[in-house]
What does this fold into?
Amino acid sequence: MLTGKLATLVILATLLAVVGAWGVALRYRAAMQRLMSAPPEDSPPRPPPPPAPSALPVSNITLADNRRAYRRLVTIFASISLLMSFTHALTLEQLSGSAQINWETVTILTLVMAWPIVLVLGVIERWPRHRVALLLAAWFVGAVLLIAWRTSEAVTLSGIMIWMSFAIGIPLLLVSAVCLGNATRAIAPWLLPLFVLLAGAAQLGLDALSAMINSGTGGATLLSATDTFGHWSIILAFALTPMLLAWWPAKQLGRWLATAYTKQRFSELFYLFTAVWALSLITPALGAASDSWRGALATFFLPLAWIPFSYPLLRALSPVVPQQQRAPTLLVLRVFQKDVSIQNLFDRVIERWRLTGNTVLIAGTDLAERTIDAEDIFTFIDGRLAERFIYHPDEIEAKLSQFELEPDIEGRYRVNECYCHDSTWQQALDRLILISDVVLMDLRGFRKKNKGCLYELGVLAAAPAIGRVVILANPGGDRDKAEAAAAAAPDGRFIWIDIEPNETIAPEQVLAALLDSKP
It folds into this structure.
């Protein structure tokens, strides 16, 4: 019965986290839109103070360095995943009660139970759900055939399918719901621990109600309350009251996660990696609980122990950016209200850039589900999102001083945003240009009515120290207006890459232009 309750708790918390993620994303975008269009301040704007020069020269990162960083990232997470899968398989073999370890069985189980690697790669690459589903279907078929080939005739194919569906199917649904997609990937993993706590509190309340009924304690009072308010009202009261009491510790847990993330004690990718494997191990652990709770705990926690042990290994690996140098900073500009285009660019290009450099931009609703992090989520839940916005140009320097420019444990750099009102984005842009080394501007879908883009092109053309500016643009249309706005730039500053309206972006072509390398 306890195993069933735990399974129900996990499934309920997962559903609540997914629904909560959709709700937070919808309300977050609406709040951002409202705050961005807030009326300007009454006091006249004053220019921000001049930037302090960086003490370190920018590193000359190449496309080859970026490729090396990408291979390193994939190798690290794939290797950790294999170690976790091996530990999981070895634990299952030992729990089977065999007098001697069958290493062939351990090898087969390692390969079969390594399916979260596909999800980990999907998280790193931001693959769509259908691509992950196809790859996992192929993995499932291959695993079934491998087990059928190496297992005795006493085990039927239907038995293998049932075991695989239990061992992989249920965890796969949980992981896909929480860690893939847009709003769910960005928000649901951070909400899941909170809803586990809240769902657990509700379960304790229902257990207390059941105990009171079975023991007769307070039976007369319950019967009287039932006659007055009805059965469902009593059940809901015993379920919701503990949840309300648990809301404060749940919020404290969320704030702790946000603080730990902000202090770079862990990264978004490592958190997602942990969530993928934790959800993948829950069903096998609950299955082992029917025989032994010690075995269940070992099945769940022993594979996860590789995650903290991998930290020293990551820190020991040589960084892409040498010491006494700093990573280059990329400023991303775009045509607003072209959500699908800029989201695709972020997934295919900016995610790769983050392996070797910082990214700064002016926040907008178009990239809210790509750039929202733990601090943003819980600041919004606390009702303090307005505190992140720049009301007056004098505040720009303080906001920029909060940028997180050091790499995370796995070597990726974070995306830093300026939250601006309509009255402050131009001053923020001026300041962001001063701290940027290269600019990527997505002008696909540009029209001459996009006055903000024309202003940005003029500022980039006149900036004294900016490096190259890579422009993605559709040929034809109002392209001549954009080129005229940038005509005053020094020779070679602007690099135009033509992309047809239905053409797919070639990530390495854009990265090569940004990094001044050959594709």
Notes: The chain has a mean pLDDT of 86. The CA atoms of residues 349 and 507 lie 5 Å apart. The chain has two domains: 2-20+76-314, 327-514. The longest strand covers residues 329-334.
